[in-house]
Recover the amino acids of this structure.
């Protein structure tokens, strides 16, 4: 996943791409959660869209952004695993 490479020393354009791609991905996940009437996930994904969006950046130091990127990446993998497990059990 793109978020796990963020702690590496990469060109700034990579981080801009990650922000834009993440914003689109989280917006889609919020829409999908809305279709399933999952209010908690809707608010979570909208919050992540606001945090990661590339237009009006939230100024955090690089260390904090690295931690945020890793936590969000781990959270996404966990959510994916949970949804995959729940689909297989149905």
């Amino acid at each position: 996943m793109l978020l796990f490479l963020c702690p590496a020393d990469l060109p700034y354009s990579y981080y801009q791409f990650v922000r834009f791609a993440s914003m689109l991905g989280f917006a889609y996940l919020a829409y999908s959660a809305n279709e399933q009437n999952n209010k908690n996930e809707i608010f979570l994904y909208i919050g992540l869209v606001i945090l990661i969006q590339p237009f009006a950046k939230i100024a955090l130091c690089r260390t904090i952004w690295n931690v945020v990127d890793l936590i969000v990446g781990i959270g996404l993998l966990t959510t994916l695993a949970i949804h995959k497990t729940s689909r297989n059990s149905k």
